[in-house]
Amino acid sequence: MDIEQKQAELIDHFVKKASSLKGTVLGPVIIEATSHPSLFAFSEILAVPSVAELEGTENSRYLDVLRLFAHGTWTDYKNNVERLPELISDQVLKLKQLTVLTLAETNKVLPYDQLMQELDVTNVRELEDFLINECMYAGIVRGKLDQLRRCFEVQFAAGRDLRPGQLGNMLQTLSNWLATSENLLVSIQEKIKWADTMSESDKKHRKDVEDRVEEVKKSLSLKADIDFRGHEEIYSEPGGVMDYEEDRSRPKRRRHPIS
């Protein structure tokens, strides 16, 4: 089963579970969802009416936790630890995985120093083990560990939930990309049209040259034929050039000495 299908099934499971509960009993469901090793998207759970109703209540901290896992990072948790419940080990692991995904959204080359700071990792070996065992094996990222350059080159990263206001920016980015693509397409079509025009011009020029060559060939052939016929007429005229055999058959004239 691929990660997208498994995500969809887990999201559906927790949405149905949260929809059937209210108040305090939603706390354990949210903890379970944010601890699950295969769940990395939470916006659908956030949209459940009974979960949204936790806002402003004594259980609102669970809603804050869910928002943290939907949009936040490990650094965000450390900066707000006083108003959030303490995370269990599975939640800590999940939040650090999500932190890697957030970093990979904007940079495809992640320096080891930045990753160690963001993840509270003390050495390179621990960092590389985390990236391999907890991120790449989990299927949420693919990439290359470059020990010489001390960086992680991201080739693929799963997407996170959209943050509030991020949809508008994404739509604008897609709109700009679409406009650029349309302009590029027009440019390509114009170049194709120009190339077709040049091809037709080249074909016409080649045809003209070939026709001219044929005309020259015919002219030369005709001239050669006329010249040949002219020579035939000269040699066949009476009194023209005497045949050698005819000359031999005639009696030779006797020469008389001059007195």
Automatic annotation (TrEMBL):
Keywords carried by this UniProt record: Signalosome
InterPro entries assigned to the protein according to its UniProt record, in alphabetical order: COPS7/eIF3m (IPR045237), PCI_dom (IPR000717)
SMART domains for the chain: PINT (SM00088)
Spans annotated as Disordered: 239-259
Pfam families: PCI
Keyword Cell membrane: no
Domain PCI: 1-159
GO cellular component: COP9 signalosome
Comp. bias intervals (Basic residues): 250-259
Keyword Glycoprotein listed: no
Family, as annotated: Belongs to the CSN7/EIF3M family. CSN7 subfamily.
Full protein name: PCI domain-containing protein
Organism from which the protein derives: Manihot esculenta
